[in-house]
Amino acid sequence: MNLSLRQMRAFAALAEARNFTRAAEQCSLTQSAFSSLISNLEAGLGLKLFSRNTRNVELTNEGEVFLNIVNTLLPETERALEEMRSQAELRRGKVAIAALPTIYSSILPSLISRFHAEHPGVELIIKDTANTGCIEHVRHRRVDFALCAATSEGSDFIAETLASDSFHFVCHASHPLAKRRSLTASEVQEAFPIIVYDGASSIRQHLDAVIYPQQWRRSYEVNSLSTAAALVIEGLGATIIPTLGLRQFRDPHLRAIPIDLPINERNICLLRLKHRTPSLAATAFIALVREHFETELDRLRPSNSFRAKLS
User: Which GO MF terms are attached to this record (predicted)?
Assistant: First the structure.
């Protein structure tokens, strides 16, 4: 037989009240409907669970055994149902996200704040990692989705473009190019070394690809934007970064100049597995990303882009 939650609750109520009228009231049922529920339970089990007379209702030996079972099953079943209701109403849940460090540090904080305000009971787990790490986290189901540079990693993924990011040459105000309104890749590549990033960085991969087979002249190679920013602030070099990285370079002595690259924009995407349905909590966060990502990116762009003070 299929034991229902309604039957378990009715049985538990009668076992406690030992009276059909009181047990029926407790379950918000008419006495006839309650009696039918108990009779159907006994018929389904093929056991008599209660002995009845005009005055008393008592558990049979089989009823005592079944009560022990129900006392174990009922709380767990009700707890499980409450958990699922909480998930459905986004009172609980978990969302795991992988994101480029530039996205994590610039776009995600405001989105996280919005999401927590609406769904304070949902746990967010966010991994900041390079583009290859984002892809691997999605591939191996360690995260619900990733926010990363567009990729062509195969047919198992859905890559939804959220926005296009442009690039800037960032230098100290004393740099020979600091007063330029705009630059081309060849003007920089032919005359000035730049601070480059680790080979796993999506910024490095994009910049290397746009001038291949030529190479950028390098002054330093670093792992993080914050390291590059410290070097640029000290006048030890210049670098090329996407709009997403500009927040790391806020300093009154720095300038950001638009640079025209052969491939001038890189697409930022929301990456997920094609055949994996996101949870309700993940779906809610994805909707928030779709709504606000491009607006948040626009806020990072310099107001006076040809020679912006990043302060």
Answer: DNA binding; DNA-binding transcription factor activity
